[in-house]
Amino acid sequence: xxxxxxxxxxxxxxxxxxxxxxxxxxxxxxxxxxxxxxxxxxxxxxxxxxxxxxxxxxxxxxxxxxxxxxxxxxxxxxxxxxxxxxxxxxxxxxxxxxxxxxxxxxxxxxxxxxxxxxxxxxxxxxxxxxxxxxxxxxxxxxxxxxxxxxxxxxxxxxxxxxxxxxxxxxxxxxxxxxxxxxxxxxxxxxxxxxxxxxxxxxxx
Length: 204
What we know:
alpha+beta; eight-stranded mixed β-sheet; 5 helices; 8 strands; about 20% strand; elongated
């Protein structure tokens, strides 16, 4: 029967080295997640925000707005619920920036495909200027209502360096204002946010 090598023999030293390597490997495996988390936090710093639009926190319930159709008939503000609403504010003369928002909202709604019936586009006209017949026909599916600017300003928050006319807002089916898109918003990124909202909620 062969004798067991002494600890100081070449075989004994090799065994001790292999034991140390195994221990080091086990320690590395245990510490790897911790080290990775520290590296990610201090050096990579991933963005936690996944939405493009600014979330309105807390959400703002729909107030009692004095709204009318273009022909002067009263519109019940409570009817701005039950669907997802893309809302913009602009004057009746509707400059190029206004027409761009109308087009933006219409196209974003259309790109939701079969979900588009859950979405309504709304133009809140904040003055008494007559609307162009061309614009009204071009965006016939948009709900156009006259509103008081002071009431809108108290409900719809613009960014510190912008005005109400710069934004498109999202109102949820419960009538809560919950998102604001930036000035000159990217339609593709707007569409992605809206698609996520529709996918995450069965209401509306």
